[in-house]
Amino acid sequence: MKGYLALEDGTVFEGKAFGATGKRHGEVVFNTGMTGYQEILTDPSYCGQIVTLTYPLVGNYGINDEDFESQRPQVWGFVVREACTIPSNWRSREKLEEFLARYGIIGLEGIDTRALTRRLRSYGTMRGIIATGEQDPDFLVEEARNAPGLSGQQLVPLVTSKKPYIIQGQSYRVVLMDFGVKQNIIRWLQKLGCTVIVVPAQTTAEEILAYNPDGIMLSNGPGDPKDVPYGVETIRNLLGRKPIFGICLGHQLLGRALGADTYKLPFGHRGGNHPVKDLRTGRVYITSQNHGFAIDPDTLDPDIVEVSHINLNDGTVEGLRHKKLPVFSVQYHPEAAPGPTDSEYLFEQFMQLMAEGRQNGLEVDGHATK
Ligand SMILES: NC(=O)CC[C@H](N)C(=O)O
């Protein structure tokens, strides 16, 4: 069956549909990772987006039982050069096309993904329509132009957990604010022995503190951080109470809670080889990234917070460190999945802050809270 991707700039790509049939809008973005399509498809941060991969052969190792970052595909469309129909891997349980079809996600193959990516890189991410069957291309472009943009949509409520749940461990108690958490963040905390209490994004600071946590983890998640004011409010009320570690959307919300502004990047960072420099040590890490927004460094209060990491490709903010409190965050993904695990030490750093918090309590403006 035929399939189309129409962009708001008037470009229409025609290819072959696989997975589900129908029509859906989304923000069209590209990821440059050479592997890890199962993790990308199931990462809740992609909710609201139609994702294309620059790597041309996709589906070769099928879908397995282990590489899920959430229970289902979260992308709103998937565009590839060539989709493999006969996967070969000992872990494979299902074909990519069956997996997408089962969850109503449209896939499109036979697309010149290099041309598509170059377009997105030149003009920025665009609204798009992915559709299967016979279609009028001009009408699809019109629909793409009328589709809602990513900003302004309430996407976090679509992917956050409905109820709190606890994964029992032996070491520190971590409350994880679930804005659309990737499973590998939970796996890392579990590996370090933490008890993880996952709470919905709308949970208040009082409710979180009632769990008596040693630390608070702010997860990744979809959409524009400006559309999550309730998360910012909660984080603001948690500052100074417990150690806090934010990842990606969690980092952006923390930045906003500290008074900074966020803005949209032209085409975002999505891939497994983004170089990030730790400004304190001068060391460069190769990181896994997936974000379309960033913190505006000019809006940070230098008395309160410092930029701890920057991206070496475009100089954007990649990490924050509070100057007085045990509070830090990164824009990239130390949990990897997919991508390099160079930055796993950040989880150890969080453990360290929780250990110190247990011993000394937190110092807020010179007053111990314990
Ligand atoms: N992975 C994430 O948490 C992404 C954060 C945010 N949705 C962005 O695109 O910038």
Note the total helix count: 10
Per the CATH scheme, the topology name of the largest domain is: Rossmann fold
Strand content: 25-35%
List cofactors, ions and other ligands. glutamine
Please list the strands of the largest sheet in the order they lie side by side: 10-12-11-13-14-19-18-17-15-16
Portion of residues in helices?
10-25%
Count every beta strand, where a strand is a DSSP E run of 2 or more residues: 21
* Low-confidence region ranges: 365-370
Domain Carbamoyl-phosphate synthase small subunit N-terminal: 1-131
GO molecular function, one term: carbamoyl-phosphate synthase (glutamine-hydrolyzing) activity
Keywords: Amino-acid biosynthesis, Arginine biosynthesis, ATP-binding, Glutamine amidotransferase, Ligase, Nucleotide-binding, Pyrimidine biosynthesis
Pathway: Amino-acid biosynthesis; L-arginine biosynthesis; carbamoyl phosphate from bicarbonate: step 1/1; Pyrimidine metabolism; UMP biosynthesis via de novo pathway; (S)-dihydroorotate from bicarbonate: step 1/3
Structure description:
- The protein has 370 residues and is α/β, with parallel strands linked by helices.
- It has 2 domains: 2-146, Glucose Oxidase, domain 1; 156-368, Class I glutamine amidotransferase (GATase) domain (Rossmann fold), CATH 3.40.50.880.
- 24% of the residues lie in helices and 32% in strands.
- It is built from 10 helices and 21 strands.
- It has helices spanning 37-42, 96-102, 113-123, 137-146, 156-159, 183-191, 205-209, 229-238, 249-257, 345-360; strands spanning 2-7, 12-19, 23-31, 49-53, 57-58, 77-79, 82-83, 106-109, 126-132, 165-167, 173-178, 195-200, 215-218, 244-247, 262-278, 284-295, 305-311, 317-322, 327-330, 363-364, 367-368.
- The protein has a 10-stranded mixed beta sheet with strand order 10-12-11-13-14-19-18-17-15-16, with helices on both faces.
- Strand 1 (2-7) and strand 2 (12-19) form a beta hairpin.
- Helix 8 crosses helix 9.
- The longest helix is centred in the C-terminal third of the chain and has 16 residues, at 345-360.
- The N and C termini lie far apart (65 Å).
- Residues 365-370 have low confidence and may be disordered.
- The structure holds glutamine.
- Glutamine (GLN) is lined by residues 45, 220-223, 248-249, 290-293.
- Composed of two chains; the small (or glutamine) chain promotes the hydrolysis of glutamine to ammonia, which is used by the large (or ammonia) chain to synthesize carbamoyl phosphate. Tetramer of heterodimers (alpha,beta)4.
